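ingest -> validate -> predict -> emit
validate: passed (alphabet ok, no gaps, 93 aa)
predict: started
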Amino acid sequence: MSDDSHVIIMRHQAACYESNARAQEYENALWAARPSSRLRPKLSLDGGQWCALYGDNIQDGIAGFGGSPAEAYAAFDVVWSAPYRQEGAKEKP
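emit:
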């Protein structure tokens, strides 16, 4: 293997490391932008499920439930991002 081949391999490895680092930075940015990450709802067990709760109680706050903490946080993100609907309001056709 020539010296040029070693240089090419080293440059390729460096490019791969940089690409992986950028991908990790992107994943971290996505995670940090999630409502559950920014708001840090309280996590607790409620019956047989995990509950991620933002607020003093389930009636007045926002809650997400799931079989694991990750599922509870994901459900919380969905509920947080859903449009507000008043109780008894009819959907538009």
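Residues 3-81 form one domain.
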